[in-house]
Design a protein that fits this description.
This protein is an all-alpha fold. It has 2 helices and no strands. The protein starts with 26 loop residues before the first helix and ends in a 14-residue tail after the last helix. The relative contact order is 0.07.
């Protein structure tokens, strides 16, 4: 399939549109629109709590194993 820009030839060299009704948005405000948000409030904390429980269970176990002690500063 051959790529062609013929369908955009009528608009490709037009000047950038600037609204007369709305003020220019700052870069920070624009970035805020795409920033991640907490869709599941408390989800991260729940995961961290569960991880700590598993680490505590692991540390109470035999103490032998490949990952023992690796996550002690969580």
């Amino acid at each position: 399939m051959k790529f062609t820009s013929d369908k955009y030839d009528d608009i490709i060299n037009l000047p950038h549109h600037v609204s007369k009704k709305r003020p220019h948005m700052t870069m920070a405000a624009r970035a805020g629109q795409f920033a991640p948000f907490a869709a599941l409030t408390g989800h991260k904390e729940a995961i961290e709590d569960k991880a700590e429980e598993h680490i505590d269970e692991w540390n109470e176990g035999s103490g032998e194993g490949l990952y023992h002690g690796e996550f002690e500063d969580i």
